[in-house]
Amino acid sequence: MSQSQVLPAGPARATRPHTALRRFLALDAVVTGANGVAYAAASRPLGELLGIDAALLFELGLLLSAYAAGVGWLASRPQPPAAGVKLVVDVNLLWAALSVVALVAWLEPTTAGLVWTPLQAATVAGFAALQWTALRSVSR
After folding, report:
1. Is residue 6 part of a domain?
2. pLDDT profile of the chain (140 residues), mean per 10
3. From which domain of life does this come (predicted)?
4. Distance between CA atoms of 29 and 67, rounded to whole angstroms?
């Protein structure tokens, strides 16, 4: 019995390590892009719902949309460059940390904002962890 028959075939144990990495990058791009488009297109109602300034939300939406396009480009590469993936991991971790800092330091969110902000920070940190794990698997 081969090792691939014994170990579960989870996403991080893909037969081709680049496949898992590309999938995690693509998922990040889709989720981040959808979030960015929503922030930009519906900044006023989402700002009211979350208790975040609509202008700030609009700008964040544009930034997230551009970032998602870059992450999507990386995901489209047959072998995403390690430096680019490391940058995505670092930016994701920075985003997660700044989200929590903003929540504590200067945002005055509604109850929905108090739930949403840590939830999206945890999601982004999760993407970073998955991407880092997959990148390490590729490097082996």
Report:
1. no
2. 44 65 97 98 98 96 98 96 97 97 93 96 98 90
3. Bacteria
4. 8
